[in-house]
Amino acid sequence: MVVPNKSKEGSQSRENTNESQVAGAYLEEPQKSKAVTRGIAFSSPREFIRHFTVVVALVVTVVIFAILRPHTFLALNNLEAILTSQAALFALSLTLTVALGAGEIDLSIGGVLGFSSVLIGYLSVTKGIPVVIALVISFIAILLVAAINSYLIVKIRVNGLIATLAMGTILDGLSEAVSNSSTIGNIPSSILKPMQARFLGIGTPFWYAVVIGIIIWYVLHHMQSGRFLYFTGEGREAARLAGIRVNRIRTVSLFVSAIGAWFAGLIVLGQTGAAQAGTGDPYLLPAYAATFLGAATIKPGRFNPIGTFVAVLLLAVGTTGLQLFGLSNWVTNVFDGAILIVAIGLATLVGR
Amino acid sequence: MASSDALVVDNVSKAFGGTKALDQVSVTVKLGEVHALLGHNGSGKSTLIKIISGYHNPDSGSVTINGHQVHYPTTSLALREFGVSFLHQDIGLVPTLSILENLRVGRLDTGALGHIRWRNERATVSELLARFGIELNPELPVSRLSAAQRSILGVIRAFQDVEGDNSLDKGGLIILDEPTAALPQAEKEILFGAIKLVASHGVGVLLVTHHLEEPLQYADRVSVLRDGKLIVTDDVAAYDYDSLAELVVGQSVDKVSTASGEKVRSDQSYLKVDGLTSENLDEVSFEAFSGEIIGLTGLMGAGHEEVPFLLYGATIPKRGEIVVNGRKFRPDPVNSRREGISLVSGDRLRAGGVLSASIGENVTLPVLDTIVGRLGWLRGEKEESIVSGMMSKFAITGASAHMPFSVLSGGNQQKALVGRWIEAKPKILLLQEPTAGVDIGATVEIIRMLKAFAEQGGIVIFSSEQYEDVATLSDRVLVFRSGRIICELSGSNLTPTSLVDASYGKIEV
């Protein structure tokens, strides 16, 4: 399976020589020295597939739909629409990746998303408070939610699954109360404008999500704190004994997922122009499907932002494509659910 | 059940590779007696227990339990039917369940519809508890019990297992493996009361222990294993502490002078520990000087294994002062790292490397700050060269840096874990059992690494029960017993045998 393959590619053979010079240990087993720490060179097709399953799946999906529905699916505006409409899911999933990476589970993000959009709508429309102040108040409210979540999980050590599930439900209830169970319309244009503008044909919220993704990628993959975060998630006691401030990292990760959900709520509010209780619930499962699917690719076995990004794309392309076939909205749920099952199946198999 | 013996081990031998772990050992446990099995690490004691419990198959010889000869390979279920029950150190109770549930699970009294007759159950359990002198509500969760109460509950459950429901003194065999390791002195007595009571009902009890005073006080007969051979089986009454210890240790016990070594030290200690006290430690005080390798040893549960954790701040002591480099120091893992103190935990699986992270990520963890570039960016090339440098330095072969840490063998993992902290250049390196579960090659390498580290002025403080390695590695050794330092060995007084003697309390200071 693993065949040394020295001269096929110039850069690869150069890497090999470099390695052999620094690492005497590698000399004994040259056939294993191909895949280096940075994961650029792959020793076999199997290794390649292991790292790029979801990317391959994405390409295959796109090709299939392109063949079956060449005019509608491949149209540029369809791609633009997909990316624009999934901006909130991008933001939500990318920040959720941070919490999951630190070993924390946050099921309150759906509730936070809904609550933040309703609260901003309520304050700025019903109460007529200036938008900036409404944003600040809602942001503080969400920080409070994150503080309670992390106090319960990190300090009191309750089961995070249950604590955040309860918190999400509380927020759903509060959203109903604040919105008086009705839709709040007439959202101020200072919220709509920055969320409905376009850049390179794609809605600006997508670009915000891209920026968030790049920041998270930088921190998780290329900074010490990211390494510490993954160690905390994958071996908490080992990380603690290595002098890593695991509790601080866990707390911060829960704040990141909450703030991400707050921002996703703002995106939804700006894009739809209306606030309604329960907006966030349909986002919860796709966000988990995307992060878990993402963990089965790029850096297999590890929640990683690039994987998450590709996985959200796959979810979006898949559901949009199926909808082009005239399959109605139920398809979304079935597809998302199926993807989550495939994702955890893959993650388990890859982990072996 | 005609036999009057609970257990007959007849001429059992067992070899692992070339070494004979058991050499024609015969032991008999009579019904109604408490029989102690003594021997230090490597004596063959645990191999014998593992054969009786069906974990190992004997190479030759036979084992008979309650008159039934065991046919190997066997299963724990088959052994249970012969009327044998094992009580291990961890007892194996479910803490969240009640006393009743823990005792009665699998034998609950059910009615015609499969419902549980709780009233009958409560009555049965109350009666059972009363017989053992415990007055507790059967509904109480086990987590609320004291350590001694839990041990007794374990004994009662084992008793039930071998007796069946209608306790008609049917005989049976209970094997207790270090039952008192987690118990304070006062509570041991209560436990042994329960054990004696079980024996008085005609059950044979085999007590495996490190503590010589226990058989002297509570056992009827004693068997001593040493180097895989049965040294003696005899009535306890014929022995006192000294003569028993001599049998276990295997030589007449010399009074070894414990004057500290002649090595001239720097005038001031770098680390000073004063009155360190915790659950299992009692007023431990010592000093450490630059360049020193200090071994901490004793019998299992003597408290030495806790010292590295306490010094590092991974667990919090009840009392005690730690002074590092002339300043008072309150350890916690983050502070300790900053102060140049590192820890290699003995629990390699849970608290050593992160198994799913790559080998590279694991070994660079302590030195990550040296590769941080501008804007916090970790310089990948620098990291790669550090990783490959470390891997060749620690002689880790057969795996490459990007592979998960879990692919490494135990020995390679341990080399990587010890080595990575040495690379971080701490002042004090704390280790628990650095050579346990590690192959000979890796052991030699780890000892070499630690000695080199100390030669550079580092301090190594490690706890271990591998007496050979402790003697090889240490400049001086503090021997613990019941949470106290009972003596210090160094220089020519420091040999594996002297460590064993001292651990059994055989050296008079």
Poorly predicted parts of chain A = 1-41
Largest sheet of chain A: 2 strands, antiparallel
CATH class placement of one domain in chain B:
Alpha Beta
Largest interface: A-B, 38 and 47 residues
Q: Detail the poorly predicted runs of chain B.
A: 252-264
Helix content bin of chain A = over 70%
Q: Give the N-to-C terminal Cα separation of chain B.
A: 51 Å
What overall geometry of chain B do the principal axes of the alpha carbons give?
globular
Name the shape of chain A in a single word.
Answer: globular
Strand content of chain B: 15-25%
Indicate the radius of gyration of chain A in whole angstroms. Answer: 22 Å
Number of helices of chain A: 17
Main sheet strand line-up of chain A: 1-2
Mean pLDDT over the residues of chain A? 84
Our estimate of the beta-strand percent of chain A is: under 5%
In sequence order, what are the helices and strands of chain A, one letter per element? HHHHHHHHHHEEHHHHHHH
Structural domain tally of chain A: 2
Strand line-up in the sheet with most strands of chain B? 6-7-8-3-9-10
The name of the CATH architecture of the largest domain in chain A is Orthogonal Bundle
